[in-house]
Specification:
The protein has 685 residues and is α+β, with helices and mostly antiparallel strands.
Length: 685
Amino acid sequence: MATLHDFGFSPYIEDTISDKRSTPEPCVVSFFDRVNLDDNLINILFEQRALVVQPVGASANENISLDGIRSIKLAIPVNIKRSVDHFRKRGISVHAIGRRLPFNLKYRDGQMLAGELHGYGMAQGGLGIYLVHENGGETERGIRCYFPVSSIDTFTVGEHLGKVLLEQKDLTEAGLQTALAVQRKLRAQKLGHILLEKRVVDQQQLEQAIREQATAPVRRLGEVLIETGLISEEQLHAALDEQGRRRGKPLGEILTEMGLVSKDVIREVLAQKLGKETDNTLVKLVNKIVLDAKDQGASDIHIEPRPGKENTRIRFRRDGILYDYLEVPSRFRSALISRVKIMANLDISERRRAQDGKIDFKRFGPARIELRVATIPTNNNLESVVLRILTSTKPLPLDKLQLAPHVLESLRTLAETPYGLILVCGPTGSGKTTTLHSIVGHINTPERKIWTAEDPVEITQPGLSQVQVNTKIGWTFATALRSFLRADPDVIVVGEMRDQETAQIGVEASLTGHLVLSTLHTNSAAESVTRLLDMGLDPFNFADALLCVLAQRLARRLCPDCKLSRPADEAAVAALAQEYCLGTALEPATVIETWNKAYATKGRIMLNAAAGCKECGKTGFRGRIAIHELLVVTPTIRHLIRMKSPVSEIVPVAMANGMRTLKQDGIEKVLQGFTTIERVRAVCS
């Protein structure tokens, strides 16, 4: 990782520098779309396209992307000769001028900057200049200013060539305008220009724009070096002549051997000017990915780099299934991941360890979206990134969860109990939080004080006191729960019972006059009971506290616009009934008789199948439906908990008291036309 000393950004430069420590320097950072910042510059991470600054008055450092930055101006003047010598010793070409010269710089948004400078140089993906310091003498001291190359449209030193020719009467005004028009036409388009011209609005256009950029003709190296003032036309011609005598030798190597530019300069010019990571485009690309994911109803965005020159694959998860969205050329992968890391305030230089963070997208784009970010190092020195979309939503009413009537009635009754413990269980992504907030919404009345501890806060509703836990600072579920008990609660919601301490406090709170609701990552309702006992909970206290456990899964829902309904033959119905009764004391014939009364149409039970239409993307499925399993703690169940009985003893008793298993509830939703038996089997092993 480069430091400020490597690029002459320290006021204490000497002829020989071995100390690589970065010295903070006061600076002004100017942006295209933000107010200026007065900070202390710690470092410039050129490869990651980011600044490391320490805000004035703060102790922690902050990463700022070079995206959108106009310039970085350091406040402390330096001795120009010593600074230039430092650059040149490191192979970076600097044009030191023996007198003041005017310069003009045009930013990419058309705004102009004019002034006087003592010297300038192109290095590390940007332009560095020595501004004239008013108290610095004629050529002794100057103010350093750095411009990312992506912020610059044109840069000229001295009088414009056209102006000089006009004054010398070697060129007419009409001729000058014609030449300028041709020059503008010949400028190579960047990927961002292509996207803007095409007014990208959908995935196909975005893919086409990236393909065009990948195959677009690149500009000649010599042309770019002349434009940026790094070499003269005479020097280029001399290098080309040398190249003609040494066929096969790259021009960049010849220019380096001639001492005209360094290898670093060649590398940076090639990276920044010959078709590569443009900053403005990258911002637009990442923003579009997030907005498209939100518009398509995706829950997760997967960014999956592949080795070598293979494209980086981006996929969206919708309704539990991953779909291909876009493939990005391999040369954009590092910049793409760095951009996401910067948005999430992660360490962009750390690629060996997994990192977690969050993005408040309203700071970067036109939507109120929060994203949870996880980066994971993979093989071949790559990183995979997953972004989970955490859109704040309102809770669904309890009667909109499509609970079976007896489950809905029991939950309503138990939720209105003044104290006790209610658990919702299931794997990640099974809708536990949605159900939990629906239960809370049912009892969220003005006379109740309800505290919630969540990670993250995904669903909000008026009247709740919601808390975001932060394990990095020790603000855990357990510590939040202890604080709630001192804050006069009626109802306490704990996002997850992850450990014995949280579970123990939750049980104690439910035994002291509070209603406690939480979630657990278990496969079934009965398994939740044994899991908490295995954590070390006192079985007598736990048995007295527990009111019920609701297990759930999410199955893919048939598209209502194209699903196909057909009468089921007797063999299919019999097989379905057999599966429904498996492991229970129920008789298939009795079950079929019940189904005929509840679900038959003109004496026939109907089964539905997926067809596919434009509304569901030809998949036959749109959205998901929850299937449930409610275990209500009766006196008999309570006795079994106290005895630490196994799941095999708890389930038969619960079913005798009216519990339906997840598979049974799923089969009934198949008969109601919501999904297919294959989808139910997929989520109920």
